[in-house]
Structures are given as structure tokens and as C-alpha cells.
Amino acid sequence: MDSSMFFENWSALGRTLIIGVLAYSIVVVFLRISGKRTLSKWNAFDFIVTIALGSTLASIIISKDVALAQGALALGVLIALQFVITWLAVRVPWLRRLIKSEPALLLDRGRILHDALKRERVSESELRAAVRANGNVSMEDVEAVVLETDGTFSVIKSGGDGSRSALEGVAGAGPARAEQAER
Fold first, then answer.
1. Under a CB-based contact definition with an 8 Å cutoff, are residues 60 and 15 in contact?
2. pLDDT tens column, 91-136
3. Top-tier CATH class for 104-182
4. Do residues 122 and 152 touch, judged by C-beta distance below 8 A?
5. Taking the complete model, does pTM exceed 0.70, yes or no?
6. Domain boundaries, the chain
7. What are the DSSP calls for the chain, one per residue?
């Protein structure tokens, strides 16, 4: 058995320790500079960026072929691209639709929207669990359940004034539904 599989030399361990601490510090500094959005709840876009950051960090720490400056630049590029794309997505609607899904209405005024459940791959038991987790006993006491872009459920209790302004921009809860509710 080759002993280098377990221990090569002290300088390799020292390099891993020093580069690991420095690369980790660089990631922390870059993430603090880039703002809260970089660390928000994940949608598919955020997930990809996070995996890429982790893979890059691992390569910097483990690979002798990647210099710290090169790795820091790679981390900076990934974080800068994420910052630019999210900044643009706030300002450019078509880009926002490209990188983020729309929130989806799953329950409307106590009625389960089975087609929406199928489309979003959510089971009725998951929907009921979300309603219960929000402290509701009856589905009929819930105005709406929305599957948000990050995969979480928002449970909206029935309100007294009939306003549905929180549902603006939710797929399946367009203005026609709100107008019908007022009639």
C-alpha cells in the first residue's frame, strides 16, 4: 500500500491549513461585501451559485494547481456575477422571470387547487401540513396558500376586509379572481 495516500509531507498539510484559512476568510469577506441577497433562501439560481462557490473553495484548498490569487479571483467573479444578475433581475422583468419562478397559488379561499398542486409537484398532505404548521385547524379558514419561489409555503389567513393585495404577482391569483371575490 502506498503511504502517500495517508500522508505525503508536512509542507502539503501546512499549505492546506494556510490556504484553507485564507480562502475561507476571502469567501466570508466577499459574501459580506456582496450583501444579504447572496445568502438569502435559495431558489434554483441561488443553489447553483452556492454549489459553484463551494466547489471553487474546495478546489482552492485541496488542489496544488490552483493558486490562492487565482482562486480568490474565481470566488470574486462568481459573487460579482451573482450580485450583478440579482441587481439586474430587480430592474429587468424578463430577466427576473428567467432566473426565478413565480410564486404559485395552491389553495384559494379554502379550496385546494389540484391542478396547481400537480404542476408544482406538491402533495395534498404537504399542503395540509403547511396549513397546520401555521396554526390553522380548518382549510376553510385560510384565504390562500402560496408556494413561494424559494420552496416555502406562505399561509394567509382570511382577513376581514376582503383585500387580496398580498397575492399580487402570484400565479393563479390574478386580478380577475380578486375582482370576482369583491362581487
1. no
2. 998 888 777 778 899 999 999 999 999 999 999 999 999 999 999 9
3. alpha beta
4. no
5. no
6. 3-98, 104-182
7. --GGGT---HHHHHHHHHHHHHHHHHHHHHHHHH-GGGGSS--HHHHHHHHHHHHHHHHHHH-TTS-HHHHHHHHHHHHHHHHHHHHHHHH-HHHHHHHSPPPEEEEETTEE-HHHHHHHT--HHHHHHHHHHTT-S-GGGEEEEEE-TTS-EEEEEPPSS---GGGTT-BT--HHHHHHHH-
